[in-house]
């Protein structure tokens, strides 16, 4: 970063490649050594790299494509480790950057690409919340259930729908159909969790049911 930004010794793409390589190598070491702190630092650097190196003229497709790769890496780690801090870092960085870009740079010409990336990010963090629950048993009364990360479970649809409403504001009934789609997704997930996990995923299934009913109800107004 300093070689590019402060001293001008290397071009932007080289600096970006080196920072991504450091991030990838650090993540690999973190998994091998079961080092949560190292993974957190690596992903923090990974999400910050394009923002630190930006000169203001970059493509949002390149930015969010890169963020998609980082989030898929977080999803991959979630299949092996219940590292909540890493999940939250990716969630905050992704939706925070997307919200800031939408506020300052979005135009209707960007609708299709922005819609695709938003759907991908929402699905990734829904899947991450399920994987976290699967890896985190919780004592509940006389039995056990799977823990719920309320930030991911409720934050993903709320922030996702907020961004979605901004994208479809120019479409007739865009918000209504978006709420209906969110409701349908969460009701289908509820049915899948109940069928697959029985009472094991009871807490998560109840949260998804509440979200599904809430979004379906929101469709009418």
Task: Explain what the structure shows.
The protein has 221 residues and is mainly α. The chain is built from nine helices and two strands, in the order H-H-H-H-H-H-E-E-H-H-H. Helix 2 (12-33) runs antiparallel to helix 3. It starts with a helix and ends with a helix.
Short structural description:
76% of the residues lie in helices and 4% in strands. The protein contains nine helices and two strands; from the N terminus they run H-H-H-H-H-H-E-E-H-H-H.
Major β-sheet strand ordering: 1-2
SSE order in H/E notation? Answer: HHHHHHEEHHH
Portion in strands: under 5%
Query: Given the structure, what is the number of helices?
Result: 9
Rg of Cα set: 19 Å
Q: Could you say which structural class the secondary elements and strand pairing correspond to?
A: mainly alpha
Main β sheet profile: 2 strands, antiparallel
Write the layout of secondary structure elements.
Elements (H helix, E strand, L loop, with lengths): L1 H4 L6 H22 L2 H18 L6 H19 L5 H21 L6 H25 L1 E4 L2 E4 L3 H18 L6 H24 L4 H18 L2
Antiparallel strand pairs: 1-2
Helix pairs in contact: 2-3, 3-5, 4-5, 4-6, 5-6, 5-7, 6-7, 7-8, 8-9
């Amino acid at each position: 970063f300093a070689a590019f930004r402060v001293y001008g010794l290397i071009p932007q793409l080289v600096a970006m490649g080196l920072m991504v390589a450091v991030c990838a190598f650090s993540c690999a070491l973190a998994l091998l050594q079961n080092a949560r702190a190292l993974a957190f630092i690596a992903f923090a650097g990974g999400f910050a790299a394009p923002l630190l190196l930006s000169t203001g003229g970059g493509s949002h497709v390149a930015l969010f494509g890169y963020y998609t790769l980082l989030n898929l890496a977080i999803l991959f780690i979630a299949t092996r480790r219940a590292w909540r801090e890493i999940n939250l870092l990716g969630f905050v960085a992704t939706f925070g950057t997307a919200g800031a870009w939408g506020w300052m740079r979005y135009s209707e010409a960007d609708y299709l690409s922005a819609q695709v990336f938003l759907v991908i990010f929402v699905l990734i963090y829904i899947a991450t919340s399920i994987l976290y629950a699967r890896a985190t048993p919780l004592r509940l009364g006389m039995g056990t259930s799977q823990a719920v990360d309320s930030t991911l479970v409720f934050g993903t649809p709320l922030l996702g729908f907020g961004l979605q409403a901004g994208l479809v504001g120019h479409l007739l009934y865009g918000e209504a159909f978006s709420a209906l789609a969110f409701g349908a997704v969460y009701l289908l997930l509820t049915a899948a969790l109940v069928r697959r996990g029985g009472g094991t995923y009871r807490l998560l299934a109840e949260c998804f049911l509440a979200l599904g009913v809430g979004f379906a109800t929101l469709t009418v107004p």
